């Protein structure tokens, strides 16, 4: 299980409509909405980083979501599994600085 603290950047004046969409996901909790900066602070709980990546790609298809940036990760259960020699599905693909830089470069094209 992975717990992630993230910021959802939205188009101006769309934070509440995006929040309504996010509320439909039982594994997403909304913690704050900043209308001035058009950001929503959320936590996401997922089974694996690949499922997290799938969810974020799906959410980013929403026309009012500009970007989802992850700021906190908790892999406690995965670390316990690794410590016990239990296989895990933890690749962290897409979370390196170079991958984040690619995403920022895509955004700068707008």
Automatic annotation (TrEMBL):
Q: Matching Pfam families, A to Z?
A: NapD
Q: Record's InterPro entries? A: Chaperone_NapD_NO3_reduct (IPR005623)
UniProt superkingdom: Bacteria
Q: What is this protein called?
A: Chaperone NapD
Which organism was this protein described from? Calditerrivibrio nitroreducens (strain DSM 19672 / NBRC 101217 / Yu37-1)
